[in-house]
Amino acid sequence: KDLIAKAKEVAKQLGITLREGVYFGVTGPTFETRAEYRLIRTLGAHAVGMSTVQEVIAASHMGMAVFAMSVITDIGIREEENTITHDEVLQAAAEAAPKLSAIFREMIIGS
Q: What share of the chain has pLDDT > 90, as a percent?
């Protein structure tokens, strides 16, 4: 909880918007279908992804304090199946990387 509060404080200072929610982890490696997105939303999740969960489980198992942030690269609202490409996901991640790096850098060395 302390790390979440710190991340919010740092993001606010940097003018970066953070959102909290329930993350639904999947193993992938495919994009979700419209039916899967409907199910995931019905179960109460706000975001879905193929990363983060496995790493958090492993770190927790090792007794580590864990803090994670995820970049949402695909909002999952689509008229047709598979309308986003892997390249578009990579581009969205690359655009978000400087903001995420700034938050982590400030959390680690800024205090």
A: 38
Helices (H) then strands (E): counts for the chain? 4, 2
Structural domains in the chain (count):
1
| Boundaries of domain holding 27 | 2-109
Residue 66 makes CB contacts below 8 A (sequence gap 6+) with 56, 59, 60
DSSP line for 90-101: HHHHHHHHHHHH
Pairing of strands 23-25, 47-49: parallel
pTM of this structure: 0.72
Q: Which residues lie below 8 Å from residue 89, measured CB to CB, with a gap of 6+?
A: 73, 74
47 contact partners, CB below 8 Å, separation of at least 6: 21, 22, 23, 24, 70, 72
Alpha-carbon gap, residue 24 to 32, rounded angstroms: 12
